[in-house]
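Lab meeting tomorrow. Please check the following:
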Amino acid sequence: MNAKLSEAKSGSEKRKSGGEVAEQHQVRRSKLHADYWKKRLFHEGFTRGGRRLLSGNWSVRIKHQGRRGAFGLNTPNAAAAAAKAQQIYASLVSAGWDATLAKFKPDAVKKPAAGTVGQAIGAAAQLVTTRKQSFAQAALRLRQIAGELAGIKRPENPTAYRSAEFLAWRAKVDGVPLSIITAAAVREWRDKRIAARATNPVEKRAATISADSTIRMARAVFSRRIMESGLASHVTLPSPPPFAGVTVGGSTKRFAGRINAGQLFAKARQVLEKEEPEAFRAFCLCVLAGLRRSEADRLAWSQVDLAGRVITIERTEWFEPKSEESARTIDLDEVAVDILRRAKSDNPDPVFVLKGGAPKLQTKAAPAYRCDASPWRTWEKLTEWLRANGVHDAKPIHVLRKLAGSLVFQAHGLEQARGFLGHASITTTSDSYLVRQRRVTVSIPTPSDEVSREAGKAGGM
């Protein structure tokens, strides 16, 4: 019997009374009251100068759902500290650990690592709407700036895109965090490039144009359209994002226009047409139709309407316009039509206006011109001829397009020139393309002229 009594007693001890259960529930509920936390406050210890000291502010340790954490309460007042501890616990119950830490202990929240240059380029490439070659140029300029900011030496030949040296450089730069591309860092990068050429005004101007152009192209990776398309959802961007707050001045290189278009065209007809007929046709497409080199290089006969005297720049199987505005219809004068008509009858390429190799996919930063393939080398020959005949610009073929735009402006005005060139903004046309082709002088009559005129009037009477 004693054994049974002992066993019964043991069982009764295991079963808690209703009052005890109620008391336990009261303890649980009391965690939502500040009084519960007053007895659980403590002062965090720290070491200074070899001495162990206690913080003047209260802290608390809270356990919830098997996880324990310490929170600094930032007050020496026990009542205020207990009230804040109660708020923290209530947040844990309602919102969970992540939200509570973000609110009450943000420094403890592990922030996502900043995205890298390579991640940004890869993500932006999926969102971009411009042609791939343009974006490849922007990506190359972004890598250039990021690499120089990070102290990564550029390849000896920065345009040898398939070389092992270039690929190794690109891999290093792609790992550079975006956080280093701050407004201050980019401004310093720009200033250093310009300062290196500061002693020569001409070279300083060229360095300014080059630096500003590089910045404009690089920040296109973070353009408004790409950002609005959700770049931040694909890569962790610093705040503010790269290039935010960076402004570059109006350092566009204006066309000097020292070339006489009439004299240059006459010389081309006399010499270039006989010696290099393909280069002459390329010359005419640029100077008579204002085409970009890429537009002329892949211009198909299907885009040329000789009867209607127009060329249509549009998306084709082999070509994508630089922008929406670049798609346009260009009127031709009779001289241009005659040159194209003779080109079509003189052993033409079955598809393209200019002879050359098969067109390659344009995904690289460097343009792949089909007419520069061997044995034609059309653009190379035209460049050599232009430089030998007084066109010393860094981009002599582009000078032909600028000459064409200036002539249209002179005859028909600024808006017609913008449409002819296929510019999105009229500012681009006016800032860098237009130059007068006529002499503008001021004539002030002398006193003797006035006397002569008066005498003439008197004689007529």
In short: The chain has three domains: 32-107, 117-233, 261-432. The domain at 261-432 is CATH 1.10.443.10 (hpI Integrase; Chain A).
